[in-house]
Design brief:
The strands form seven sheets. Strands 3-26-25-24 form a four-stranded antiparallel beta sheet, with no helix packed on it. The protein is globular. The chain is built from no helices and 26 strands. The chain is mostly beta strands. The chain has strands at 13-15, 25-27, 64-73, 76-81, 88-92, 96-100, 107-109, 124-129, 138-146, 152-162, 170-179, 194-196, 202-206, 229-233, 255-258, 263-269, 274-279, 287-290, 329-330, 340-345, 358-362, 367-374, 381-384, 396-401, 408-412, 417-424.
């Protein structure tokens, strides 16, 4: 693991009045981001913006147990269940792809994964399964890869998963189908979540590659490139023909939204079909966003974050900047933040009280966040509830729901890590 060790900073307590509804306080630890991070940066922990009277919570006090599914993973980054199969694909940041049987914890290596740029936050990242699997056996990977000059960027690739006979599983004919231009130096902010929308197109997040040339010419505000953005692609990796800027000769045709910093969580809300994302702020300023077609999410000209190492606002807030879309939930400057990684809307049967809730992993704060959502779209009210797994000391990198059982699965970000599941007590 390349992240620098966690260290305590001045924000060590989640404040009940500005964060978790229903508990008095919970210890959080701030951290540093590997490869050139700053104090309290992308992986700091803290509290949200829920102040005031919280809506009722039907999911409070649900009893659960935690089981180890499999262990020995090196910085696992993503989870994806195979439909009609029950097994689980797991990526590891150094470049390995595995197939896990949840019934007995058996782990098989999957051959055919690409060569990756496994430095800083780079490596083998997300995994998504074609929505028509197994009729269409394609599996999609996002990953950081470098060019001949040593510069790197986010890639999307796909291969056909072969599970035939007694042979080991393999991704046949894997090839990159999208390269987010331009390549840049450094090893941070690849974003890199991949999610299929309800209409079958592939949404991919790309980080701003830690561009510190803040201002209106920042890569996230420059629509001519694919950094700091959400891309919408066809299953073959082409720009979706209904993207908002396909007729603009000065804009990248794969862009769906822009003005993002480093979105490391994305999920579809099944009740509405809307795409939601969780995004890292600078220091604090982490966000939950509902993604609008063609929307500008403000980074870095609008932000709720602090300047690193200070309590000074980084930029005007979203509500004070015209033409940008405000998050539906954020952790303001001074709160301690919620560095997100991995998210899912719960739609299972194991925990009926949690149906419709958003679950998101947090890194340095080391718990699994649960959020209730009332209302729709940009007008939704999002409330953070009592954390799960807060006693484990785990950095939560990814979360998924097992289709057959409704159990929650989490991938723990560590050099010798488990994949675990949350089951009813």
């Amino acid at each position: 693991m390349t992240d620098l060790p966690d260290r305590a900073d001045r924000r060590t307590v989640l404040r009940a009045t500005a964060g978790l509804a229903g508990i008095a306080a919970f210890p959080a630890v701030a951290g540093c981001l590997g490869g050139g991070g700053s104090p309290g940066g992308d992986e700091a922990g803290g509290s949200g913006d829920d102040g005031g009277d919280a809506p009722p919570d039907d999911g409070a006090g649900v009893a659960y147990d935690v089981e180890t599914v499999a262990e020995g993973f090196e910085n696992p980054w993503a989870l994806a269940f195979l439909p009609d199969d029950g097994r689980l694909l797991v990526t590891e940041r150094p470049g390995r792809l595995s197939l896990v049987d949840p019934a007995d914890g058996a782990v098989e290596a999957v051959a055919g994964a690409p060569e990756v740029f496994a430095e800083g936050q780079g490596g083998l990242l997300d995994v998504a399964v074609h929505p028509d699997y197994p009729a269409d056996p394609r599996v999609y990977l996002t990953y950081a890869a470098a060019n001949d000059a040593g510069e790197a960027t986010t890639h999307v690739g796909t291969g056909r998963l072969s599970l035939d006979g007694g042979d080991a599983p393999v991704l046949d004919e894997f090839e990159p189908i999208r390269v987010a231009e331009p390549f840049r130096g450094g090893a941070n902010h690849f974003g890199s979540r991949a999610t299929f929308g309800p209409e079958g197109s592939l949404f991919v997040t790309v980080g701003d590659r830690r561009d510190t040339d803040f201002g209106p010419d920042h890569v996230s505000q420059d629509r001519s490139n694919e950094l700091g953005a959400t891309l919408r692609l066809t299953t073959d990796g082409d720009a979706h023909p209904d993207n908002p800027f396909v007729d603009d000769p000065d804009a990248a045709d794969a862009l769906y939204s822009y003005g993002h910093r480093n979105p490391q969580a994305m999920a579809v809300r099944s009740e509405t079909g809307r795409i939601w994302q969780c995004e890292h702020g600078e220091e604090d300023g982490d966000e939950i966003n509902v993604i609008e077609r063609g929307g500008d999410y403000g980074w870095p000209v609008a932000s709720e974050a602090c300047r690193y190492g200070t309590d000074d606002p980084f930029a005007p807030g979203h509500e004070d900047r015209d033409g940008v879309i405000a998050p539906v939930h954020h952790w303001p400057c001074g709160s301690g933040g919620f560095p997100p990684s991995g998210a899912v809307f719960y739609d299972g049967d194991a925990f009926p009280e949690w149906r419709g809730d958003l679950f998101a992993g947090t890194l340095a704060a080391r718990y699994l966040g649960r959020f209730t959502v009332d209302g729709d779209g940009l007008d939704a009210t999002v409330t953070e509830r009592e954390p799960l797994l807060a006693d484990r000391g785990w950095r939560m990198r990814a979360v998924a729901v097992e289709p057959d059982t409704g159990n929650l699965y989490v991938a723990v970000d560590d050099g010798d890590a488990p994949v675990a599941r949350v089951v009813p007590a």
